Amino acid sequence: MSVWRASRPLLACLACCAAGAWPGPSATGQPIFAREDSLPVYVVPETTRVVAARVGLAEIIRKAQEGERRKFDGISTLAFNRTLKLTLSYAGRKPEKRCLETSARVYYRSPDRWTEAPLRESRYIVEPDGTRKPWTDEDDDGVRIGVDDGDETGLWLENLPAFLEDTEKFSFRILHRSLQRDQVLYEIGFKPRSEFDLLPAGRVWILTGRYQIVREEYEMENLPVPWLLKSVDLLTREWQEVDGRWLPRRVTARVELHTRVGLGLVRIPNAAEVVVLFDEYRLDPELDPALFESGGK
Fold first, then answer.
1. Structure confidence at residue 206 (pLDDT)
2. pLDDT reported for residue 203
3. Of the residues 26, 38, 139, 177, which has the fewest C-beta atoms closer than 10 A?
4. Residues 210/63, Cβ–Cβ less than 8 Å
C-alpha cells in the first residue's frame, strides 16, 4: 500500500486556507490572484535634461594656459621637500650603478620668491651582486658628478611647459575624455608641427576644475645632443592634489648615452635615470623672512 506524505510547506498552506487566512475577494468584488508586499516598488523620476555646449580643443588649451599661470594664486607661502635620485648605469669590464641622492626643503613666498635649504646628500655604488659601497672621489675618474638645482626649482614650477608656451608650434588632438565627479578629465596628445624643431611630443591630462595639468608624458624624436644621447625614454611629470590644489608629485626620466664620446679618458655611463619626488607639503606656513634674504629667486 502506497503512503502519500505532504510536505511542511504544503501543510502550512492548507492550514492557512482552513483558518480563513488566505485572502478572499476584494471589496470591489474583483478576485485577487496574488499579494506580495516584500518587493520594493520603484518610481521612475522625470528625466532631467542637461544641455551644455562641449568645450572646444582651442578653448581647452587656452584655459589650461590660464590655469597653469594662476596655479599659485591665493598661496602666500609654501614649503615642501624635494628628493632627487640620479642613477648612472655602467657596463663593460666593471659593471656597476652609481647613485646620488639629494634632498632639500623648498620655500616659496608670494609673488615670486623661491629658496631652499639642503637636508642631506648620499653617494654610493651598487655592485652587480647588490652590494653597496661608498662612492668616493677616487671613483669619479677626475670628473665630479653632482646635482645643483639651486634656484631653478621655482623657475621650473612656474614656467609653462613648452606645448603651452608656444602653442603655435604644436598640433593638438583630444584622445579621450572621462567624467571625474563634477569635472571632466581630458587626455590630449600633442606633437611638433615641424619635424626639424627640437621639441617633444607626448600626452597631457587636464582636469577642468581649475584647468590644471595632472600628468604629462613626453617623447623626444629629435634629440638635442645626438652625439651624446643615444635615446630618450618616456619622460613623465605627475601632480597630486593637496588641499584642493594640484602640486608636483614626481618626475621621471631615463636616457641612454653614447659611451665612445669619452675617448677612453672619461668613463661615460651607458644610461642615466632621474627620479624627483615632492612631498611634505605645507600651504601658507609662517616663514622667517630671513630665508629669502640670501639666495633664492
1. 96
2. 97
3. 38
4. no
Q: Which three cell numbers stand for residue 111?
A: 609673488
DSSP annotation string for the chain:
-------HHHHHHHHHHHHT-S----TTS--------SS----PPPPPP---PPPPHHHHHHHHHHHHHTTTTT-SEEEEEEEEEEEEEE-TTS-EEEEEEEEEEEEEETTTEEEEEEEEEEEEEE-TTS-EEE--GGGGTT-------TTHHHHHHHSPPHHHHSGGGEEEEEEEEEEETTEEEEEEEEEESSTTS---EEEEEEETTTTEEEEEEEE-SS-SSTTTEEEE--EEEEEEEETTEEEEEEEEEEEEE-GGGGTTTSPPPSEEEEEEEEEEEEES----GGGGTSS--
In terms of DSSP bridges, do strands 229-232 and 245-257 run parallel, antiparallel, or are they unpaired? antiparallel
Give me the pLDDT at residue 259, please: 82
152's grid cell: 631653478
Domain ranges of the chain: 57-292
> Do residues 123 and 129 touch, judged by C-beta distance below 8 A?
no
Beta bridge partners of 123: 100
Say what the pLDDT of residue 11 is. 42
Q: Which three cell numbers stand for residue 215?
A: 600628468
Which residues are bridge partners to 189 per DSSP? 173, 203
Q: Match 598640433 to its residue by C-alpha cell.
A: 171
**Other CB atoms within 10 Å distance of the CB of residue 4:** 4
Instruction: Give me the residues of the chain with pLDDT under 70, please.
Output: 1-53, 139-156, 262-265, 294-297
Q: Is the pTM of this model over 0.85?
A: no
| The predicted structure's pLDDT at residue 229 | 87
CB of 101 within 8 A of CB of 84? yes
